Amino acid sequence: MRLGAWLLVAALAGAGCAGGTVDGGDDADEQVVAALSSSTLYEYVTPTDPTATNPLALYRANAVPSALAPTYGAATLPDVRLAADATTNEAALDAIFSIPYAGNGTNAVALFLTRDASSASTGPAVDVVSIWAPSQTVPLAGAVQKQALYQIVPASSGKVTVRELNEKDYPAGTPSFDYGATVDPVAAASAVQAGAPFIGSVDVKCTKILFWTSCKPPTAVHVSAYFSAR
């Protein structure tokens, strides 16, 4: 009995969410948070060293490594091509290919929405559905293998849902927004409220018990950069 109680306490103590703290979770608006399911992924993009096997390295957004998966979210170097149903065009993709490694190799120079197209005959490959460019320099160190990429989705009764892209939706609420870290707070506010993906952090309180996580609505959203469609 003592061992079971200790395990339950350990599970609670180890809980946490992006930019937030663990909470007892007794508020009525706390909800269980389920993982998002999609055939596409948001991935950060950076140019590779000229000696690399492919010119672009991709990193799955919001992929946080664990003790059991220490390389989760690390770089992949797939063959990159335009999807048949792309919302962008070949010129936009070629522009990303043309970004030099020198001076850019430590930054996320773009954000891709991709679909896996790997096969036994071609090897690792992705089809690019959409492309976004950052509003300012986005260092990989501040985004890769961290909970950092979000999107605002309208909800009912004047509320919004904060979506951690690739991962989960937090309960809808009315968080405050901080654009002070962006180069143009007015433009950032307009883009983010219109649904642009953005880099930042979220103040949210969550409780984790074994395999279940429940969270309250986020209280604040801090935006450091956003991405515009190309």
Architecture overview:
The chain has 230 residues and is mainly β. The protein folds into two domains: 2-36 and 147-229, no CATH class; 40-142, no CATH class. Helix content is 13%, strand content 34%. The strands form two sheets. Strands 3, 4, 5, 6, 7, 8, 9, 10, 11, 12 and 15 form an eleven-stranded mixed beta sheet that branches. The protein has a four-stranded mixed beta sheet with strand order 1-13-14-2. A hairpin with a 3-residue loop joins strand 9 (160-164) and strand 10. The protein is globular and about 50 Å long. The protein starts with a helix and ends with a strand. Residues 1-17 and 19-26 have low confidence and may be disordered.
